[in-house]
Amino acid sequence: MQSLVSLDLSQNKLSGEIPSGMSNLTSLSYLNLSYNSLSGRIPSGRQLDTLNSENPSLMYIGNSGLCGPPVHKNCSGNDPSIHGDLESSKQEFEPLTFYFGLVLGFVVGLWMVFCALLFKKTWRIAYFWLFDEVYNRVYVFEVVKWASFTKNTDIE
């Protein structure tokens, strides 16, 4: 189909959108889609823009639902076919890739901390000393709060 030179689909009662693959037909020199029931945005591409260089809108005449260049009807912002070409070039959010990266980052980070504590004795001593200090402070804080609570409420 890449070697297609001429395509006349006029007055065939075709409906729907023009396939975006039409702009990939590089050897196409003549295209006529007039007087059908086509709708949606006309695919952009250098190939379709160069056909019928005198008046490119003539090959789409009789299709009141078509919009965008070369016809003089602007597409509305809500038309999903407007953004079709733009969305294909943008990357979409893929949850599987995101969660894989999240888990991989967590595992690598955890192993880095574990290995640092395993092989660096000074870091290991400092880490566990800090852990003991935090534990002792929380324990003392809770004992003092419990003592003041029981003193104020007469619970023994």
Task: Please render the helix and strand layout as text.
Layout: E1 6-8, E2 15-16, E3 30-32, E4 37-41, H1 46-50, E5 65-67, H2 84-89, H3 95-119, H4 121-153
Parallel strand pairs: 1-3, 2-4, 4-5
Helix pairs in contact: 3-4
GO cellular component, one term: membrane
Subcellular location: Membrane
Main location: membrane
Describe this structure in words.
InterPro entries: Leu-rich_rpt, LRR_dom_sf, RLP23-like. Keywords: Glycoprotein, Membrane, Signal, Transmembrane, Transmembrane helix. By secondary structure, this protein is mainly α. Helix content is about 45%, strand content about 10%. Helix 3 (about 95-120) packs across helix 4 (about 120-155). The chain contains 4 helices and 5 strands. The protein has 2 domains: about 5-90, Ribonuclease Inhibitor (Leucine-rich repeat, LRR (right-handed beta-alpha superhelix)), CATH 3.80.10.10; about 95-155, no CATH class. It has helices spanning about 45-50, 85-90, 95-120, 120-155, and strands at about 5-10, 15, 30, 35-40, 65. Strands 2-4-5 form a 3-stranded parallel beta sheet, with no helix packed on it. Strand 4 (about 35-40), helix 1 (about 45-50) and strand 5 form a beta-alpha-beta unit. The chain is elongated and about 95 Å long.
